[in-house]
């Protein structure tokens, strides 16, 4: 579970654990909890340091997974959890590929980060994901431009479990005050917009079935 205003988890090792840092994170958790939109703080390897109640509500229907729960490591969730496309609309193009592109830059800058290297190994063990990372991703970046994987300001589709929202969009707002930046952390808020259309059962079913196929930016290997 994420370190929340109402509960606690150990702060990831990449975040200093001084008393001052702990006190700041506890107060920041209180601030996040007051927000009506899903908001969370991650370290450079996308371990979730803080998450508010709206974040938990968005992902409350996600099934268990040993390494890719959304409030544990958000990057792993987007890349590896079979339920990711049930919530993250247009999962491949709007979420997975931008996150892969962001990851490629991070693993280059922080080549000795153990968590990032662990994610890289897991990508390599999935033939479709590895092909997408090595071959499909460079093609996608050339076609879409480097701004395509910028998180701040991007508008991305969501399938919210709350029927009041349903199938909607969110604007990703990245805000990192100095104190968080000094801890190596980044805050992201998913600002929900008015629903685009009703969230029907068949629509959600299509998203779930698509999740099993992983990425399609490259052909699946032949048997």
How would you portray this structure in words?
With 223 residues, this protein is of the alpha+beta class. It has a single domain (22-211), classed as Beta-Lactamase (2-Layer Sandwich), CATH 3.30.450. It is built from nine helices and five strands, in the order H-E-E-H-H-H-H-H-H-E-E-H-E-H. It has helices at 19-33, 53-58, 74-80, 84-87, 91-109, 114-125, 127-144, 178-182, 201-211, and strands at residues 39-43, 48-51, 155-159, 167-175, 185-192. The protein has a five-stranded antiparallel β-sheet with strand order 2-1-5-4-3. Strand 3 (155-159) and strand 4 form a beta hairpin. Helix 5 crosses helix 7. The longest helix has 19 residues, at 91-109. It is globular and about 45 Å long. Residues 3-13, 199-214 and 218-223 have low confidence and may be disordered.
Overview features:
9 helices, 5-stranded antiparallel β-sheet, alpha+beta, globular, 5 strands, Beta-Lactamase, 223 residues, disordered C terminus, disordered N terminus
Mean pLDDT: 83
End-to-end distance, in Å? 39 Å
Strand arrangement, major sheet: 2-1-5-4-3
CATH topology tier name: Beta-Lactamase
Helix proportion range: 40-55%
Low-pLDDT parts are 3-13, 199-214, 218-223
Per CATH, the architecture is 2-Layer Sandwich
User: Could you say which structural class the secondary elements and strand pairing correspond to?
Assistant: alpha+beta
């Amino acid at each position: 579970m994420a370190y929340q205003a109402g509960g606690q988890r150990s702060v990831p090792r990449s975040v200093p654990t001084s008393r001052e840092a702990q006190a700041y994170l506890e107060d920041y958790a209180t601030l996040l909890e007051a927000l009506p939109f899903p908001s969370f703080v991650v370290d450079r390897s996308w371990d979730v340091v803080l998450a508010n109640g709206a974040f938990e509500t968005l992902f409350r229907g996600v099934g268990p997974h040993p390494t890719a729960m959304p409030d544990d490591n958000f990057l792993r969730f987007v890349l590896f959890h079979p339920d990711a496309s049930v919530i993250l609309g247009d999962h491949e193009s709007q979420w997975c590929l931008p996150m892969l592109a962001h990851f490629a830059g991070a693993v280059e800058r922080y080549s000795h980060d153990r968590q990032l290297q662990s994610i890289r190994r897991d990508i390599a063990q999935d033939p479709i994901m590895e092909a997408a990372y090595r071959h499909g991703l460079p093609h996608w970046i050339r076609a879409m431009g480097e701004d395509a994987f910028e998180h701040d300001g991007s508008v991305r589709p969501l399938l919210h479990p709350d029927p009041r929202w349903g199938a909607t969009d969110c604007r990703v707002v990245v805000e990192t005050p100095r104190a968080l930046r000094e801890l190596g952390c980044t805050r992201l808020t998913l600002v929900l917009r008015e629903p685009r259309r009703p969230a029907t059962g068949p629509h959600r079913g299509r998203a779930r079935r698509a999740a099993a196929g992983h990425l399609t930016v490259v052909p699946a290997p032949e048997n």
